[in-house]
Each structure stands twice: as structure tokens, then as C-alpha cells.
Amino acid sequence: MPDVRLASSQGKWILLTTVLGSSMAMLDSTVVNVALPRIGEDLDASLSALQWTVNAYMLTLAGLILLGGSLGDRYGRRKVFVVGVVWFAAASLMCGLAPNDAMLIAARALQGIGGALLTPGSLALIQASFHPDDRARAVGLWSGFGGIGAAVGPFLGGWLVDGPGWRWVFLLNVPLALLCVPVALRHVPESADGRAHGRFDVLGAVLGALALGLVTFALIEAGTASLLAVAGVAAGVAFGYVEKRRQDPMLPLDIFGSRQFTALNVVTLCVYGAFGGYFFLTALQLQVVAGYSALAAGTALLPTTALMLLFSARSGALADRIGPRIPLTVGPLLCATAMLLMLRVGAHADYLTDVLPAVLVQGVGMVVLVAPLTASVLASVDTARAGIASGINNAAARAAGLLAVAALPLLAGMGPEAYRSPTAFDKAFDRAMPICAGVLVVGAVLAFTLVRRPAPGCVRPECRRHGNVTTPPLETDGRS
């Protein structure tokens, strides 16, 4: 039985460690988009290279995050968490020193592996270390501080890009790791799941990542990679075959026997696909077309995160009373409205009249949507499978964002040099936002049609407050 009390010195050190670790990965997911124009200018990179700068990280993270959680359960959550932090920092150093776009993309892929090791471990360490009476408060503080980190991220990233330079967006992770690792080794107790057994599904993880990678490559390099698209689909089929036959699969396919769980993940693919494309292109639109500095572009999107951080817990409580169907319908429709409002953002856009209304509506939509979605995913499966259900949903959201960043520029007709021309990019952006809005409307219709009120007595999220705009909260199996 975990017995560390939150008020103790050790409890505070554990909380600091997990906040530092999760903040590294969360900062990265919100900061890099702001730095893309400067990266492209400095490294003379094409739009496809900027897409890969985002997607190389998301590819390895989405493909390996379920395996990362299993490694922590088996070999020790602190050990795998520390390895992940060190790996992430080393890869961040490589990103910051990259002499060209190819090296940056390779380093970003390595960074995603580190993220897959440390991301599941942050919350798992809290759940496995703190006394049950203090666990809810510890998780609340962890999610609150993490949300503040997500809110500060774009502002900090913009300041770094405009000041010392874009490389410091990555180099910042190194001092965070130098602080986090010794604290973790000294103050965080080791824990593992004695029930973990069997062989790791390495083949499944490789096939899943390969399928995503090949399809992503085919979308980004459209016209020259049709055979790779076929190979990606074949790898996906092989992944399903392997997962169906394995005794301990990374992705147990029978979990999709729950129609509610399947429907919620399809809704997740729609909404987080739209979000991924929206945040990727909006950071570029504000700088390339509207003429904002990196700092102004990062700060411009701050209200969305702030609204989520302030009101997500209340939204979850409301969904408990009225059921998830209405929030999961209204939330995507509000976000779709926000993306259509972004069509007002053009050259010399005024923040108060052109940008802020869209950002506020987006924030309200995400407040309405995110917490009920997480709660519904956990409630749609047996209590014992809540952790794996959350992991699958989180991976699905990351995969959706990955594919959206790859596909949306293609669908909007963006050429390899589009981000260098304000006029060309603005026209393509105006084509992209209605596509994102349409995908959200599809998600809303699916939610209204398929989502039902969960049964009483189901698992509820431990992470009630959330500020990450690119993925839903990740719950783990540390409740025992």
C-alpha cells in the first residue's frame, strides 16, 4: 500500500519530479508549432520538412506510448521514467544543435521515444506513491501545475524564438532534466506492478508505428509515394493480425467489443484530427500572413488553454449530471464555429476583433468537450481495463493529429514553399479551416447518434483539470 503523504517533504519532492517530467513533454507539444516559421527560415526547410518536424515526434510517441506504460509496470515506474527523461533531454539537445532539417527530424523522432517512456510514468508515479487519502489532491495539483505549464508554453516558446532563437525551445529541456533526474533518484520510491507478466509486444509496437509512418510519408510526399501508402495499409493489416493472435497484446482488440468505446474513439479521431491541423496551421497563419511575432502568436492562443484549465473540472461535473451526449455534441460544434471564425484572420488581422473571438469560442468548445470525453472513455469499459482504455484513446488522439498535419496541407493545396508566401498560405488556410470544421461536425453527429449515458458505478477520471490542447488526459492503472 503506498504511504507517502502529500504534506511530507518526500511528497513535495515527488510532486515536483512528476510536474517537471510531464512539463517537458507538454511544453514540447505546444511550443514547437510557434517556432516553425523561424526553423524553416534558418534551415531553409520546405513545408514538408516543417510537417515532419512536428510529425516525427508524434509518430514515435503515438506508436510507442502504450509500450512505454507497460515497460514502467514491469521494470519499475521510476526507472523507466528516469530513462525517459534522460532520453528526452538528450534528443532535445540534438534538436537544438541540429545543423539541418534532416538531423532535426531524426532527433525529433528520438525525442518522441523519450516522451513515450516518461509521459505514462508521471501520473503512474503519483498513483503508486501517495497514500490513498492524499492521491486525489496530489493528482489535482499535478494536473493543475501541468496545465499552467501548457498555458505558459506558447508564451515562453515565442519569447525564446524572438529572443535567443528557436534552438532554445529544445535546449530548455536540458536544465529541466538536470533538475528532475537527481530529485527522482533521491526522493521517488520505486514501484512496479507484480501482476505484469508475459512477453512485450514489441512486434505490435513496431508494426503500428510503421503503418502510421508509411501512411504519413505518403500523405506528406503525395504523388511520389503511392507504393508506400499501400505498404502502410499492409502494415496496419499485419498489426491487427498480430494483436488478435497475441496472448498479451499491446492493443487488445476485444476492447472494441464495447460499442460505446469504439464510438468514442471514432469521435476522438475526428475532434483531435481537426485540432491537430488547426493548431499547426494557425501558428503559421498568425506569423506568415497576419505578421505577428512568435511571441504574439504564442500568446494569442493562450485564452484557449486558460479556459480549459479554469473550467474543465466543472464541465466534467456537469457531464456527470446530464450525461456525455450533449457535451460531446455541442463541444465539437462550438469548435467548428471557432475554425470558421478563423477565416477572418488575414493580413494585418486585429487581435481583439479578428483573432480573440475565434480563440474564445475554441476554448469554450474544448471546455465542453474534453473532460466528458475522457470520463466517457473510462466509463465505457470494465474497471480493470480503464487504464488501457485511456492509453488507447490518448494514442488515437495523437495518431489523429499526426495524420491531420500530414493530410491537411495536401487537401488545402499547399505547395512545398507555401509558407514563404503570405498570399498563397492565406488562400490555402481559408480552404483548410472549413475542412477542419467539417470533420468536427462529423464528430458531433457521431456523438449525438452513438454515445449514451454510462452505467452507474463506473470508473471516473482522477485527472479532473486539464490544459493540454493537443491530447486528452492520460489515465493509468495505478489505482491499487
From TrEMBL:
Give UniProt keywords alphabetically: Antibiotic resistance, Cell membrane, Membrane, Transmembrane, Transmembrane helix, Transport
**A GO molecular-function term, please?**
transmembrane transporter activity
Recorded hits in CDD domains, A to Z, give: MFS_MMR_MDR_like (cd17321)
A single Pfam family it belongs to is: MFS_1
> Would I find Chaperone among this entry's keywords?
no
Q: How does it sit in the membrane?
A: Multi-pass membrane protein
Per its UniProt entry, which superkingdom is the organism in?
Bacteria
Q: Which GO terms describe its biological process?
A: response to antibiotic
Residues annotated as domain Major facilitator superfamily (MFS) profile: 14-455
User: Per the UniProt record, which residue ranges are transmembrane?
Assistant: 12-36, 48-68, 80-99, 105-126, 138-160, 166-188, 200-219, 225-242, 263-284, 290-313, 325-343, 355-379, 391-412, 432-451
Q: Tell where it localizes.
A: Cell membrane
Please give the chief subcellular localization of this protein. Answer: membrane
Q: What SUPFAM superfamilies does this protein's entry cite?
A: MFS general substrate transporter (SSF103473)
One Gene Ontology cellular component annotation held by this UniProt entry? plasma membrane
Looking up InterPro entries in the UniProt record yields: EmrB-like (IPR004638), MFS (IPR011701), MFS_dom (IPR020846), MFS_trans_sf (IPR036259)
What protein name applies here?
MFS transporter
Q: Which organism is it from?
A: Streptomyces fuscichromogenes
